[in-house]
Amino acid sequence: MNQTKFTRKLRRTRPWLIATAICIGLIVLAIGTFELMGWAFLAKPAEQFLSDTLKRKVILTESDENLAFKLRLIGGVRLELGFFEMGAPNWSKAPYMLQGKNVTLALRYRDLLAWRNNPDLPLHIKTLKADMLDGNIERLADGRASWHFTEETPDTEPTPLPNFGLLAFEAGTIRYNDEPLALDLNATLALQEGSSGEDALNISATGTYQKKKLDLELASTGILPWVAQNAEPIPVALNISLGSAKLAFKGKATDALQMQQLSGHFVISGPSLAMAGEALGITLPNTPPFRTEGELSREGQTWKAGIASATIGNSRLKGDFVYEGGAETPLLSGVLKGPSLILADLGPTVGAPITKTEQTQTSSGKVLPDKPFDLPSLRAMDADVRIDIDNLDLGSEILKPLRPLRAHLALTSGVLRISDIEAKTAQGQLAGMVQLDGREDIALWEVDLGWAGVQLEQWLKLKRPAKQPPFVTGRMNGAAKLKGKGRSTAEILGSLAGNVRTEVTNGTMSHLIIEAAGLDAAEALGVWFRGDDVLEMKCAFADLEANNGVLRPRVFVIDTPDSALWVNGTISMKTEALNLRVVVTPKDFSPVSLRTPLLVTGTMGSPEVSVQKGPLAGKLAGAALLSLINPLGALIPFLDVGTPDTKQDAEKTGCYDLAARSKAQQKAKNE
Prior knowledge:
alpha+beta, 31-stranded mixed β-sheet
């Protein structure tokens, strides 16, 4: 038989090479066949392998008769299952961690290798689709998490959840319990590749967060990755209710769970800013009810908020802020501005009351607020905020607001300092600083303020009948340097130490006030009928010393051509007890005058005004005896000649005049 050239060459080839080529061909053919068939015979071995590797029971087939198992290995792992179940960890009471029907799972080999080399990194899953998905996700207080497969020991750091390129399913239910976050949530989900303009993602969840009732609604017009990195933002609408606080957000985000990138318009409302801060994961102060709206964005751990309108209690504010949450100590910076700030609306941040009921009732039954400071909040973050307020209302019906107020608020390692204070009111100005050191359990408080050129008739909102002169006028100057310590406003004031000085120049005072203070009935009636006039205040000066919470006037005097008014005694900020004595030294003749000191006693919440009984008793006794002789004689003890100024004294001015007269009178008594 004639052999062809090819046949002769083939016979010269070594047999083992032929066998090798045939085997390779058969292997390729087998792999191709199995790839087309879906490697169904690997279902049970795969279950065993995954169960051993993940240390969890893994089921890939619903039954031996109904395998519904297809696996593709070329170019990556792609698995199609009619049924899938991954068991819960040994410490969990849940029946399983994850269960699904008609599941499609796709992973890339490079992602699997990266995760195998470093299990602490999140596993990237390219695709996970299912008709139905049901999960029980848990993390214990010690750090053990159901999504951590490599070991059962607690994590020193929170283990990241897997992230997905695409996660979609027609219906899903997730029960999520995270003890470190105090989050317990039941969620129903639907993620579908819908047409443009239709909601493709819908999440509805209810549960509790930080022991407060939580409701959440999330919708998107595109498939939103559950957890993703470097994804393109897509439209999203989010509504959250946490207790009484509500958050509405409409904008764009990259992922549904962590919201690492987002931007859009927000509206937040609730009974306190602190509750809104809990929902956002940032620290905010306790305040009265509020409503805030503006633009919000987030890049990783950096939040930016442009607040167009913020209503807090009766305050109206706005501002721009940046919150850096990635630092070891988070930092809030920005500018707070606006047309109006009511001081009482910020009172709760330092322990002051919020409601009128709280203003009249404290836990100790006293007037001064004794609500403990939230010192841990001061230590939770730092702040660097510029304040520029058009109108600061001091919360008093008597005192006019500060217009404007500018200051620098700095919070560093638990020390809150408001410095560079510049404020104007009634043609005068206020400057200085206030500091609260909250680094320890007991806060240290310090104030250093000065005021100058404040017109009293403009600053004090004291109503008088038409055409009647103001009760008091003049320019007020002064300074206060005080320190204290405590866990509340009441405790700080109860330990107060320092000095307060103030004086009034070029001032006048109502004649009626002076006569009423001196219990001069005749003069007061005369002023009442003929109309009030004004008395020049030659000297008006107060020097108050604080020691261990007790305020004591070293000097408190008002001198007029009619009388000089002196105040001495004590005010206890610790017990709120009043023990003041007001003495009026007249310079004129009065036919009906008790001329006895006034006593102000009782407490701040219930003051009592009376006359000193000793001097008054002597006058009343004399009147009783003389009335036995002649009823008109009863008026004689009440005739007060007074101590008129001499010509030399009248030439002296101001407090020098008063001091000279006082020394002269004291010398005369000693002689």
